[in-house]
Amino acid sequence: MSLIVQKFGGSSVANPSRIKNVAGRVNAYRKKGHRLVVVVSALGDTTDELLKLAAQLTQKPPGRELDVLMSAGEQISIALLAMALKELGCEAVSFTGWQVGIRTSSSHTRARIHHINPNRILEALKEKKVVIVAGFQGINSCNDITTLGRGGSDLTAVALAKALEADACEIYTDVEGIFTTDPRLVKNARKIKKISYEEMLELASSGAQVMQSRSIEVAGKYDIPLHVRSSFKKNEGTWIVKEAKLMEDVLIRGVSVNKNEAKISVRGVPNRPGIAAGIFKTLADKSINVDMIIQNIGKSAANTDISFTVPKGDAHSAVRALEAVSRKIGAKEILMDPHIAKISVVGIGMRSHAGVAAAMFETLGKNKVNIEMISTSEIKISCVVKQADAEKAVRLLHDKFKLGK
Amino acid sequence: MSLIVQKFGGSSVANPSRIKNVAGRVNAYRKKGHRLVVVVSALGDTTDELLKLAAQLTQKPPGRELDVLMSAGEQISIALLAMALKELGCEAVSFTGWQVGIRTSSSHTRARIHHINPNRILEALKEKKVVIVAGFQGINSCNDITTLGRGGSDLTAVALAKALEADACEIYTDVEGIFTTDPRLVKNARKIKKISYEEMLELASSGAQVMQSRSIEVAGKYDIPLHVRSSFKKNEGTWIVKEAKLMEDVLIRGVSVNKNEAKISVRGVPNRPGIAAGIFKTLADKSINVDMIIQNIGKSAANTDISFTVPKGDAHSAVRALEAVSRKIGAKEILMDPHIAKISVVGIGMRSHAGVAAAMFETLGKNKVNIEMISTSEIKISCVVKQADAEKAVRLLHDKFKLGK
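^ Those are the sequences you sent over. The predicted structure of the assembly is below.
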């Protein structure tokens, strides 16, 4: 009898009829004899609606109170799911974060899980109950309510799987699994059966937002098999596992596209030590996440151009923050372009096979897709292209690397 | 510097603009130097909306999960009020029931408060913060969330006032205080300045539903002055205090009317010991609250008629439950009449002044209002009349006892 942690996102429990659907699936698993711990997010748009209420009261809601507010959302869904299960004759019990001792760091709205006390859950499992746990929330050392940031329910599920030594952690979502690329862009995109944590992390950070990155990291660290699958269809989804457990050795696992970044270039920067540090410290002070960073020699050897990408929403405040620095260091100009897309190919096969980069650049070049920036990791190559070229680029690369099978 | 507990009901915090209004009032008090603990209910119809969601999932929601569900409502309002106060520059901190150790009995949906640990609140008050506490909720000895039943936030406020040894407990509501009778029925109804706990209890149980009865009982037991007043107007409301503290000695404090009961008569019951017990045990087993009970000799001395009132909503199930018993004991028939009203006059002056009952019956009789049932307590006389006569009866009695001044 396996112990399985199942996580259902907000869209899976958006309304009573969907909650019934989830209860039906959970109950079917229960009947097979599995021991189940079910993590749920807040109903559909609840979190956004609560934030809207807060926004009518203040522009800067204090983090502590935001967490009290938002965590009410999951409290509602755990109670409703427990009711729906009992209605099916399935014994179930719901717990909030504090009730199962999910202890976190103290930083509100983006706390990290430090520890989970599994006793109360284990007791309930022993009583043959399905245990339902509120995702996204915990408490810090002052017993104040904390939340784990966007996608935090994934993290709750993975951390519970670790604390309970579960056999697997299933992430139910509104897609059928991880695809070789976005199926809305490429018709013959294929569902991936198995993928390694590392590949999934690279795909997630390059735009395939099925799961929160930190959860994949934690699952990888503790070797917890993740199964990403549909809340609405019965067939298997995608397993995220240790590299060693992958049967097939493919070169490229998938192609992702990210249209949520903007490119900023600081041009004509004097080529002196410490200049780059000055620029990126300014952005870090504003809590702006910088992704790709490229430094090129500019037109004159004494000057250099520094380009990087930031989330589109932060682009204007990044430019404003840089204007002062730019004057101080004597840079020539700051350019910002929001109409870009980052295309990435990801695969652990790259480690042992040369030539992926060459094939990627050649494919794009031959087809008149101009590459504006390049960055690489051990198992990923990303190119920034014009946003208008994004879909064409994805289709070309998906074909080139034979991902449609 | 007094320590005051203030309670705001759901209609006082129904939406962001009303929450701002409450924050403004609290802040004004804070500026006067008072130490404040504010208890809030769930926003407007939140509780009903949550119950509607539950009803879509099951006809018999388990009490434990109902409490998890409903308590989310107050968690939302405490966070929002804390935000609104901080926006005004007033330091505030919100606490759920479990965070301030509101320990209750284990009976879900109608738990009783056993104990409150005041430490965390006292600490926050020391830090000059306004403390906001979720009404209506607590935890039992298993750390399961419990709720206190309808009007439970009043009880939270009173229990906190007791635990913190507060100087007063203010109940903010959508009426301006307690009136000599319902101002919608009688134009010259007057706001009462001071009333005793006992009088308020009798008025509450006879239909003036401004405050939950149990809270008045507890406040009386511990001699906590209650101030019932409007959330929207500044003027003083009604103080509920110890009888000894009442200055004026009036005969009748108020007239109340209750149209929410139905009369049931079991006629032709054999006059044997144990028969009445059989009838009322049947109703108790169905958790039907019986109010007035009258037993008369019937047409023959061997028979008796037993009449009583029950909440209108329970009338049909009471009749059904009694049908079997009635056959067993050989009663003649069961009659049910939902078109009645209970009119009560209440006043501690009755204790020392005879003749109130006579004056009441005479007034009604002279004006052709037929009295169907009578019951009395030390400080209350209630008559059941036809519902069509209710308003006329109230007006007559309000005049007779000169309550309009």
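Residues 63-87 of chain B form the longest helix (25 residues). Residues 53 and 252 of chain B are 45 Å apart (CA to CA).

Shout if you want it in another format.
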